[in-house]
Design brief:
About 35% of the residues lie in helices and about 15% in strands. With about 270 residues, the chain is of the alpha/beta class.
């Protein structure tokens, strides 16, 4: 059985001083992303400052060996809504979980550090009036979505894996692995409190739990630009993600997702 207590105790979280809770939190998992964040973090800052609502940027440093955390802290000195969560290196899934549980926003947007999607497209994920949803997932497939500069073999690998996802875990969606997703704050403790996977398979696990709970999930077609320095290993990580799919089904059979999570409320203990 997974040790959920690790969710609460592994990160150093510093609560920002908010006059009002933000409407949007941008959560960025980062491992050795100093070079990329030097380019993409200012773009996120400009996006937040252009909005009529309050926002925050939460970068989770996954035990980086470069100056990732220091870079974010330097931004935070002049931008109070930017902060860093320091965590030991455990993987992207763990970093995302910590970021989501330590965020304050009414909507919490998962954003890859490479910002392969134009930052203005974040607006597409926020709900229009009269159309509430619980989870919005970015999709590089379907009407309105476009991929740029992606090698053919990477696209083929993605489609093969998505077929396996449909067969074993989440049948409805065309692109569960896109690095851009948005969650309504009220369901974050339930989803991420039950998450057990710390690697790349966490995406499917969280969506599986959301579907099991009956939360509303929509797909958002996006424009996506392939990044040649992607940290996903074509063979090794595909095998790991296939193993994770089987773990999701095993976890469900063992009723792990039915156990009340120890994380209560919207925050993790600091």
């Amino acid at each position: 059985m997974p040790k959920f207590e690790a969710v609460v105790n592994t990160a150093k979280v510093t609560s920002p001083e908010h006059s009002a809770l933000p409407y949007l939190s941008i959560v960025v998992p980062a491992y050795n992303e100093e070079r990329r964040l030097a380019i993409t973090l200012p773009l996120m800052v400009n996006f937040i400052e252009a909005q009529s609502y309050a926002g925050e940027i939460v970068v989770v440093d996954d035990g980086s060996q470069d100056r990732t955390a220091n870079l974010v802290e330097e931004f935070s000195r002049t931008h109070a809504y930017v902060r860093v969560v320091r965590a030991p290196h455990k993987g992207k899934g763990n970093a995302v979980r910590l970021g989501m549980l330590s965020a304050y926003g009414e909507y919490r947007f998962l954003c890859d550090a490479d910002l392969a999607m134009p930052v203005d497209e974040i607006t597409k994920f926020l709900p229009p009036r009269g159309r509430p949803w619980d989870v919005a997932i970015g999709s590089r497939e379907g009407p309105g979505a476009r991929r740029f500069n992606e090698p053919g073999y990477r696209h083929l690998m993605g489609r093969v894996f998505n077929t396996l996802v449909k067969l074993l875990a989440v049948p409805e969606f065309e692109d569960t692995q896109c690095g851009f997703k948005c969650f309504r704050a009220a369901i974050v403790p339930d989803l991420y409190g039950h998450q057990t996977m710390e690697g790349f398979g966490f995406d499917v696990e969280v969506l599986y739990i959301a579907r099991k709970r009956g939360y509303s999930i929509i797909e958002v077609p996006i424009h996506w630009y392939y990044q040649s320095e992607s940290k996903v290993h074509p063979v090794r990580d595909t095998i790991r993600m296939m193993q994770d799919l089987l773990r999701v089904r095993l976890n469900d059979r063992q009723c792990i997702y039915d156990i009340p999570p120890p994380v209560q409320g919207d925050k993790i203990a600091g």
